């Protein structure tokens, strides 16, 4: 959203000059096509000491978006990505990383990250590995890991335990007490299982439910997992795993946010001629009315209808008002109505006149909840949809290539220093 914030028609933006009918939604993707030489030049660029232009007095402002929860382990996020590929793959991946956190203590974070990718590569294709890298860089699965952390906090965890099990409302962090708690487990209430829970694959879905709260890859996790997996294979229990980190990271979870704006407003008093402001406002209102007349409301062009039927002007205005009020009702959409909503929005933007395309895009972006209902009735241009999907694939590969190149250059620069 934020990438279009500065393109206001008539203020340095290209809308006033007539933007070519190219896929406007992909304009930001051109930044990914910069050649390597230019990227290196930007990386090693130095400010010009010649002094031909005066330096700006404003200081740069850097804004970072931090979540309310601490940083989550990358290993747990990677496991959630693999879980979406299949439950069996999740448990196979779990077996390969049973004590992986041991390597984290001696290696750097980057080496540990590469080790996670290497382990995941046993169960994922090259394309899926690229998607995993992207998911880890955007921390897409951090909220899922934090969800399990909150569920564990509601139990609550026994004090001083890095891993514990819950067997029908009874808690323990000692493996030798599991057998004792299983004896009368069926007489206690059965726990509620969530859709995102990780169930150990077994033919039998009955029997006592044992929920393990632990951090995958730790020694305490391995002790519990060995016992519970054996019992689950014998169909004695239903084994469920939920992520739990006893000592959360002290660092904040920084997110790659979008649509974030830091607006600095001037509080200085400025004298303005009221007559000029009034005249400018009246002119603007007249222009807005003319633009509204040319825009359609649920398929009706009221500007043309008024010119064709001037005697029905009042009735047309009432009808237009009624359509606008019904359009602005934010009724919930069905799932099948939302599957092509992004393509329908793009079709609406591309079908608008050239000089109105940016304006339509801005309106949809800023008023999306009340525009969604009308967008569901827009037929999708299949040719445009195929082109967008193809461009998304190309942009993804260029994004990955650019990110790896910049990362390499940064490490090389640090090495030289």
TrEMBL record:
Cell wall biogenesis/degradation listed as a keyword: no
GO cellular component labels: endoplasmic reticulum
Domain of life: Eukaryota
Cross-referenced InterPro entries: UDP-g_GGtrans, UGGT_TRXL_1, UGGT_TRXL_2
Residue intervals of the UGGT thioredoxin-like domain: 71-252, 326-395
TM region positions: 397-416
Coiled-coil regions listed: none
One example of a Gene Ontology biological process annotation: protein N-linked glycosylation via asparagine
Any matching Pfam family: Thioredoxin_12
GO molecular function terms listed in the Swiss-Prot or TrEMBL record: UDP-glucose:glycoprotein glucosyltransferase activity; unfolded protein binding
Keyword tags: Membrane, Transmembrane, Transmembrane helix
Protein known as: UDP-glucose glycoprotein glucosyltransferase 2
């Amino acid at each position: 959203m934020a990438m279009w914030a500065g393109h206001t028609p008539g203020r340095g933006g290209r809308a006033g000059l007539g933007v070519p009918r190219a896929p406007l939604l992909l304009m930001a993707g051109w930044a990914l096509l910069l050649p390597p030489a230019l990227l290196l030049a930007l990386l090693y660029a130095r400010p010009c000491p010649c002094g031909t232009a005066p330096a700006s007095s404003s200081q740069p402002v850097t804004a970072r978006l931090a979540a309310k929860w601490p940083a989550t382990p990358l290993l747990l996020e990677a496991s959630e990505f693999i879980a979406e590929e299949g439950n069996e793959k999740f448990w196979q991946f779990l077996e390969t990383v049973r004590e992986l956190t041991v390597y984290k203590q001696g290696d750097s974070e980057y080496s540990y990250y590469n080790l996670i990718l290497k382990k995941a590569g046993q169960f994922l294709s090259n394309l899926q590995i690229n998607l995993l890298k992207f998911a880890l860089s955007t921390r897409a699965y951090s909220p899922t890991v934090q969800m399990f952390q909150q569920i564990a906090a509601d139990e609550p965890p026994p004090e001083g335990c890095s891993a514990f099990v819950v067997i029908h409302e009874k808690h323990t962090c000692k493996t030798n007490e599991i057998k004792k708690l299983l004896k009368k487990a069926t007489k206690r209430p059965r726990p509620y299982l969530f859709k995102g829970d990780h169930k150990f694959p077994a033919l039998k879905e009955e029997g006592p439910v044992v929920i393990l709260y632990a951090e995958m890859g730790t020694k305490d996790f391995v002790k519990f997992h060995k016992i519970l997996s054996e019992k689950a294979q014998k169909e004695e229990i239903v084994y469920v795993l939920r992520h739990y980190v006893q000592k959360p990271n002290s660092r904040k979870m920084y997110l790659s946010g979008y649509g974030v704006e830091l607006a600095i407003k001037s509080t200085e008093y400025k004298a303005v001629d009221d007559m000029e402001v009034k005249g400018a406002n009246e002119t603007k209102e007249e222009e807005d009315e003319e633009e509204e007349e040319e825009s359609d409301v649920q398929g009706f062009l009221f500007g043309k209808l008024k010119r064709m039927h001037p005697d029905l002007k009042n009735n047309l205005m009432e009808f237009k008002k009624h359509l606008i009020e019904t359009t602005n009702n934010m009724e919930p959409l069905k799932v099948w109505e939302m599957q092509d909503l992004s393509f329908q929005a793009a079709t609406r933007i591309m079908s608008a006149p050239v000089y109105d395309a940016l304006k339509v895009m801005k309106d949809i972006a800023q008023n999306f909840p009340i525009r969604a209902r009308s967008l569901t009735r827009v037929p999708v241009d299949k040719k445009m949809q195929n082109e967008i999907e193809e461009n998304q694939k190309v942009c993804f590969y260029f994004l990955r290539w650019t990110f790896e190149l910049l990362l390499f250059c940064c490490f090389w620069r640090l090495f030289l220093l």
